[in-house]
Design goal:
Length: 344
Amino acid sequence: MTEDIEVSRRDAVRFPGISPRAYEHPVDRGALATLRAVPGFAQVVKAISGFYNERGERLMALASSIRVGPKQYPELERLRHECAETLDLPAVPNVFVFQDPRIRAETVGMDEPFIRLSTGLVELMSLDSLRFVLGHEMGHVLSGHAVYRTMMVRLISLQLSMSWTPVSALGIRAIIAALREWFRKAELSCDRAGLLCGQDPTAALRAQIQVAGGIDPARIDIPSFLQQASEYESVEDIRDSFLKLKFVETESHPFAVVRAAQLQRWAASPEYRAILAGDYPRRDGDKPGSDWKDDLKSAAQSYKESWNSSADPLTKVFSDVGEAVSGAAGKVWNKFGNGNGNGS
């Protein structure tokens, strides 16, 4: 870990009973609502879960990496508890540090999720940036993302083992593409959770600069860095638009520069300020399944706003799609709710 003067936590805001809906990206929620609405999806999740040995993964972490505790990485132990308290997690996830020079962090497990941090990440980042990273991973825990991420990883593994069959090239690829699109948006959600834990947009930006390749953030000009995102988002050649779609399809995470710019925009939003002021949805007010229609409409509206504000020629072609999908989603769900379906 780099040496720095840490931001005091005495004045940090905590969020008792916060619902993950407070920070989740609308397309993240909408994508999950769509997946859950597919007939038989719950059975697919259960079947995939049967092939997943969470107990084995915990044993492997215990045997091959360092478990964070009062006497092992005590500074991370403190951050672990801070982040869990800030987001009011029901249980504090275990954190393991594993040997890997790459910058990596992940949340593993369905029943008892735990967090893995690479040595490359821990050695490179300041304590304030590590707080952002741990908050991000705890956002995955609170949102229950590990179930669907595990499903995605297992399907990718299945696809590779069946690469010689036409099934791999058709059905499984389509499902994986949908899950990857959801997970990219889930990453944006959890960046927001990380920001809520650290409450320091500059530390979050430093962490994302390092993910993008900024070994020393002091050597990076922030306006120039954010300008890269603006240039990427405003390409004027439709050939570039198609290339963007091609490259992003196989990515599990949003591109680092674009991701950083999106979080900085959220940090400057009234929504973020309202949460800091205590105005946010609580978990005790969540009713599973009751808000799916709103989630679908919010997702469609989010896409529409993104398209309308983009200079990308391909996205402008679809500028009216968000409104159409939003209206269609409402009609379908109204019909479903008034018909024979039960909405769950």
